[in-house]
Amino acid sequence: QGQEKLSCNPKKENGTHVVLCELGNPMKAGAQITVEMELSVSGLEDMGDAITFQLQLRSKNSPSPSKASVTVPVEAQAEMELRGNSLPDTTVLPTSWQEVEGSRRLEDHGIKVEHVYELHNKGPSTVSGVTLRLAVPHQLGGRILLYLLELSTDGGMNCTHHPDLNPAQV
């Protein structure tokens, strides 16, 4: 009929977090109570796709508690942002420039352009196992457009190198 706030006490029993709520004492026979609870649980990143809560209803008048379980789906949410720039931001090749075949000097293969990409997690959850695939057009019409020289990472990431990376070993 009316709404009341429950008095609940969190505690730890046998390595399990328990929330104990007193529903009423004494309770009249045949009484029906609906309880709505909002729980905040942290550290769910590695819990899989669901978490199960075990519920028990104990009465001093009954020797065995009533048990139920509630399974709640877990969905981690994180917004990723990719930022990038090129150094220099604009490159103009001279019309008469020609690649020097067989040269191992970097300047004989073109103007150096460095591309820097940053992948940021804007949250709210942490992420792991993220894969970023970056496609770089390195040929155009059978001719070299960009000579891919090297690929490096910072921040504990793994990188798989492109098979056409530095084919002339410049």
From TrEMBL:
> Where is the Integrin alpha third immunoglobulin-like domain positioned along the sequence?
81-169
Membrane topology recorded in Swiss-Prot or TrEMBL: Single-pass type I membrane protein
GO cellular-component terms in the record? external side of plasma membrane; integrin complex
Q: Which domain of life is it from?
A: Eukaryota
- Record's keyword annotation contains Calcium: no
Q: Give one Pfam family, short name only.
A: Integrin_A_Ig_2
Localization of this protein? Membrane
Q: Which GO terms describe its molecular function?
A: integrin binding
- BP GO annotations: angiogenesis; cell adhesion mediated by integrin; cell-cell adhesion; cell-matrix adhesion; integrin-mediated signaling pathway
Q: Which residues cross the membrane?
A: none
What positions does the domain Integrin alpha second immunoglobulin-like occupy? 3-74
Query: Keywords in UniProt for this one?
Result: Glycoprotein, Integrin, Membrane
- PANTHER family in the cross-refs: INTEGRIN ALPHA, INTEGRIN ALPHA-IIB
Question: What's the protein called, per UniProt?
Answer: ITA2B protein
> Organism, per UniProt?
Formicarius rufipectus
